[in-house]
Amino acid sequence: MSPAKPKISIITVALNDSDGMDKTLASILSQDYDPIELIIIDGGSTDGTLGVIKKYENRISWWISEPDYGPYDAMNKGLNRTTGEWVCFMNAGDTFYNSHTISELFLSDPGDAEVIYGDTVFDYSVFKIHRKPRSHRDFWKGMAFCHQSVIFRTSLIKEKGYDLTYKLGADFELIYRLFAEDKRFLYCSGPVAIHNTHGLSNRYMVKSSREHFLILMRHKRVTLKEWIYYHQLFGYLILIELAYKLLPDNLILKIIKLINRRHLVTVD
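and the corresponding structure tokens:
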């Protein structure tokens, strides 16, 4: 008899994103993997998000709608309710790559791995880009992979969760903390998630990177190479944010598409 599959807890957080929530829940519930525990943390939505949640209520393990202190606080609330051996976060608007994603991740025994991660498809509406994670030696440069494309052993992160000191970089703090503690990371080739790019990241890139630098200094002695990298990055991102403010969206999208032309993908 084959061993029982581990239970996967999936936490989805949202605030006033009914369309995104519908898309995300449909993706989660289409997974051909069992058992899955689905937990929804809504920040007190006043649009149609609660209606979407109630539409799927009989397939949701637990949900709540109340004010919170932002997405990381909501994610911690979800962690407190998890009972699965593994946990992942799929925010409203994001989806798994396809209906077989979780099954393929656990097709073989992950052994002693504590963090499983893969590639991400970034969805710009008019085109999509396939991005692979950074190598381990470059984890210090910022988020090495999208947090929607990683699955953690629940016991590894449940007690401490996300550090709410960081408003934009708590996901990086969690990943780098685990990396600095020599936890076992397992890379699985291929996309795990499709990330909707219409979020805060494009508008707060400089602040986010500054938090990443502070996090790096918290966990290690920063080298001259790392100091130079981040300060060059700050200047570059200031220009990028300025471009987002001054240039029309369609031109920004054309530039992004041109720069990433070798990584354009078609997703059914």
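(Above: one complete record from the training split.) The CA atoms of residues 24 and 95 lie 5 Å apart.
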